[in-house]
Amino acid sequence: MRLSINVDHVATLRNARGESQPDPVTFALMAEEAGADGVVVHLREDRRHINERDVYLLRDLVKTKLDLEMSCSDEIIRIAGKVLPELATLVPEKRQELTTEGGLNVLDNMELVGNTINQLHDSGILVSLFIEPDLNQIDAAKELGADFIEIHTGVFANLVKEEEQIEELDRISIAAKHAKKLGLGVNAGHGLNYQNIKLFRELTDIDEVSIGHAVIAKALIVGVKEAVREMEALINRQQ
Ligand code: PXP
Prior knowledge:
By secondary structure, this protein is of the alpha/beta class. The chain has 11 helices and 8 strands.
């Protein structure tokens, strides 16, 4: 399993004071130096955390892989066409939510999602769809020509009882296997942390996890490089 680091909430902290620090770009480069396999940012339509300056600078400086999370809006599709990230991950976006609250409903939005995938492909960008571990959503992602799915792990992350966590992991495992069989790459993320990753890392069909909040929170205490190294060590079963 590879590890990509989402730096959105470094920008949340920066924007809380309208200052230039802490800089999500610096955080991302330090995460790469510590061994992260990629950097993720969500350029939201309301720009509540990451802004265009961050995205363009990251495009110039990230050496591993830039994954741009985005909605299906025309404005953001245009920006993606200029930034040219290695991967664009399509996510649902609601104005009132604190964070992305669930997977994209591909089945109910075939035309919009299909058109967005086609435009991104025309720019040479690979596309991932952030969806629930649901076989029908995965089939729809395949039908529309997506290259990857990212399985929403928020439900798993919110469970406390181990038997319920294992049940949800089974659902994720079945979904990941199904997607692999269809030839899709399989990423996963949302709410993964230093505790629940010990169960999650047992899954065999996940190519990459995308983790933000837990690593940023830990970095405040132990520093960026140590926080990333600890997560890498957990994923690689060295801890
Ligand atoms: N993947 C997606 C699609 C997300 O929207 C987010 C949250 O921005 C993450 C992964 C990372 O979630 P977390 O910050 O809870 O680790």
